[in-house]
Every structure is written in structure tokens, then in C-alpha cells.
Amino acid sequence: MERLATTEATRARMSGQKSRDTGIEVALRRELHRLGLRYRVHRRPLRAVRREADVVFGPSKVAVFVDGCFWHGCPDHATWPKRNGEFWRAKIEANRTRDANTDVVLAAAGWLSVRVWEHERPEIAAVRVREAVTSRR
């Protein structure tokens, strides 16, 4: 296996990143609950598709994905690392491609994907999610 050109500090920082129950996810769920919405957490909207949504509204067929600005290439806040830049650009672009494919696959099955960026205010994102859920009831 080829060793990546990254420092031990970078490796430790990146491997320490939480993939679930991040601060923005918890804050968003708190707001959704405050708005009277009930949901499932970290579920596959479609069993046959190995993609897990952060918040799922099964009866309304709404899947909410909370995307990190770095990992998913936020158009406003994405940064491109200088060290091992080719590796990171390929990884982030692959994440973007997978996200777009997930949205298409879910839409084909009658689901609506709602993407929330980590920089969004949870109160505002929760209202957007509520509108999506109530419009599909």
C-alpha cells in the first residue's frame, strides 16, 4: 500500500473527524424536533442503496444529508489542501459525484433529497426541511 504524503498531525486531525452526530447535525435535529417533526436518524432511505441519510422522514420520503464544507466541496467554503492536493481533490470530487448520484437514485424511487451545508444556521435549515416534509404529506 502506498503511503500518502501527509503529516502525522494532519492524519490525526482527519481521522478524528466525526462522521455522525456532528454539532450541526445535532443542532438541526433539535430544531426539527422543536418544530414538531419526528424522524429517524442515520438510516438508509432505500435498503438496496448503501447510502445513509442523516435524517429520514419515511412517510414523506424526504432524506436529509448534512454535508461538511470540506468533505463535500462547498461552493462557498471549500478549501483545497496544498499538501497531497491531487489526492484530496480526487476524494472531494468523488464525494460530490456520489452525492449527485444519491440524489438521482433517491428521486427515481420517489424520494426528495435535502442537502444542508454545515455552515447553514440550523434554524433556517430546519424551516427548509419542514417545508419539504409538509409539502409531501
TrEMBL record:
Keywords: DNA damage, DNA repair, Endonuclease, Hydrolase, Nuclease. The keyword DNA damage applies. It holds the Pfam family Vsr. GO terms for biological process: mismatch repair. CDD domains: Vsr. One of its GO terms (molecular function) is endonuclease activity. Coiled coil: none annotated. Belongs to the Vsr family. NCBIfam families: vsr (TIGR00632). This is Very short patch repair endonuclease.
